[in-house]
Amino acid sequence: MGALEFSEPRILQPQDDVSGFCCGTEFIDQWLATHGLTAKEHGTAVVYGTFISPSDGKQELAGFCSLSSYAVARSRAKGWLARNTPASIPVILLGMLGVDARYQGCGLGRDLLLDAAKRSKAIAEQLGAKALVVDPYDESARSFYERYGFRDLGDTGSMFAKL
């Protein structure tokens, strides 16, 4: 097999087929199947997907992430994040990030995270948000986010990176 070529992330559309997606983490797969195509319509998140076109030409979802507005209670934050902020600190939530098991280990998770951070920074410059927040689902995910500069958000279990 040659080098894999993934599309640039784009907003998922209702006609996109996500039925074959499986990242190996059931609640992420289930969230995508249940909410991924309707989250934008419902105003809860915007889901970005990257695709690959196998030899049959049909696009397959290779990975996705979701972004939404969020707030962190100042009482739960420390240091820089809590300084000069209202009681509810505006942040952006990277709510879901998943890479299909067939494409794990290709750097796609990193690429999706960097794209989400870039989009979040652009949003923060127009709207106002102090950080990108994630809720890692296990220690492996926590280690992944730590490699990209995310730090613990107090005792919440969440992590954040400055925008």
Automatic annotation (TrEMBL):
Signal peptide residues on this chain, from the entry's feature table = none
Sorted keywords for this record are: Acyltransferase, Repressor, Toxin-antitoxin system, Transferase
Q: Does the keyword NAD apply?
A: no
A GO MF annotation of the entry reads: acyltransferase activity, transferring groups other than amino-acyl groups
What does it catalyze?
Answer: glycyl-tRNA(Gly) + acetyl-CoA = N-acetylglycyl-tRNA(Gly) + CoA + H(+)
User: Which positions fall inside the N-acetyltransferase domain?
Assistant: 75-151
Please identify the protein, giving its name as recorded: N-acetyltransferase domain-containing protein
Please name the source species. Adlercreutzia caecimuris B7
